Amino acid sequence: MRKMNKRCYDVAVIGAGPAGAVFASLLGHMRTDLRILVVDGQTERRNKVCGGLLAPDAQRVLAEMGLTLPNSVLADPQIFAVDTADLVSKQRRIYQRHYLNMDRYAFDRWLVSMIPDHVTVISGRCERLERTLDGYVLFVNGNAYKAQKLVGADGAHSLVRRTFVGHMPKQYTAIQEWYPDLGQHVPAYSCIFDPQTSDSCSWTIRKDGFLIFGGAFEKQNCKTAFEQQKMRLEGTLSCQLGNAVRREACLLTSPRHWRDITCGIPSVYLIGEAGGFISTSSFEGISSAMLCGQHLAKAFANGTSDDNILRRYKINTFGLRVKLWSKTVKRAVLCSPFLRYIIMKSGLQSIRVMEEDHVAAVLTK
Ligand SMILES: Cc1cc2nc3c(=O)[nH]c(=O)nc-3n(C[C@H](O)[C@H](O)[C@H](O)COP(=O)(O)OP(=O)(O)OC[C@H]3O[C@@H](n4cnc5c(N)ncnc54)[C@H](O)[C@@H]3O)c2cc1C
Known about the structure:
Layout (H helix, E strand, L loop, with lengths): L7 E7 L3 H13 L5 E5 L12 E2 L1 H9 L16 E6 L4 E6 L3 E2 L2 H9 L7 E4 L2 E7 L2 E6 L2 E10 L6 H7 L5 E10 L8 E5 L7 E7 L2 E8 L4 H16 L8 E8 L10 E2 L2 E3 L15 H17 L3 H29 L2 H10 L3 E2 L4 H9 L1
Parallel strand pairs: 1-2, 1-10, 2-7, 4-12, 10-17
Antiparallel strand pairs: 3-6, 4-5, 5-18, 8-9, 9-10, 11-14, 11-15, 12-13, 13-14, 16-17
The structure holds flavin-adenine dinucleotide (FAD).
């Protein structure tokens, strides 16, 4: 029997977002012989900046894990379509979508609740990481923990990536504001293009009595660009969003090159946004994070040496990396004002909404 040291682990996972929680949960079930530590800095007060929309790919990962989503995680209303608005050409089109609208904090906590009891989960931020002759040391809440292998699941500003892997992809500052939902003429979910203030898409989402407006902006002058875009949006929709009750901001990864999406190095593995696994066209990242967690857990389950685990993880994620890399092409098309104008003008795949008086007639029947 191995001598147990309370602060020595085989694997330490930094971050318990969708990537870290899925990885720790699956590996904990597959390899009960491993001592696994999970460190997570998310708290109710310091929770994640996110639109909280669960894409079909993420729903598929849950199905593969044999899970169903509890109602307590869902938010109101549920959404079937995205209203796409181009603030420059003034075009609007509606496209069908199959997202689930969720409370992101509740979703993350629910995923963490799947981690088996023999896995140690501690709440706190890992402040520093060091490499030693026989592994790694993590400094959390003033304590030191040792681990043989590290898994960086610590999101866009990954400490693990910055410390051991280097090369950070392009990043934006994402800003979101929450307003009381006063029934303004704002779609339940919209995707906004305004090249004058941002080269990416922005969004509005209704959620549990609030209306969220958010977007991704160049780090320099992000606040000014956000305010300008808000004014332009209010002009297009002919409404006022009102006074925000909450404003939040964080970094958002936007991989542009093949090397931006990385699996890590032997004994330091990167999953989720830490590895650049996020769509650069829509910023949808929960599904990729969960998929990475799943793929790395499978690589650990079959692998023995660090090289072997990394090789398997790279093979397992090859298709996902190609798919995410191809999003750079989609982004180039969607974010080109001319091509977007043509696509929206053509009406391809868009939904024709009934005239307002027809809708009113149906509703009053
Ligand atoms: C504004 C915005 C809106 C978005 N909307 C959507 C959306 O609607 N749908 C979608 O699919 N994706 C969306 N995304 C992307 C999505 O949020 C991320 O891609 C996804 O959360 C990545 O999951 P992850 O597990 O890799 O990282 P994260 O979810 O970021 O989790 C990382 C975890 O690590 C913890 N952590 C970080 N550093 C440390 C540390 N040093 N010590 C301890 N813990 C640490 C954090 O507390 C966090 O819990 C959005 C992103 C932004 C910024």
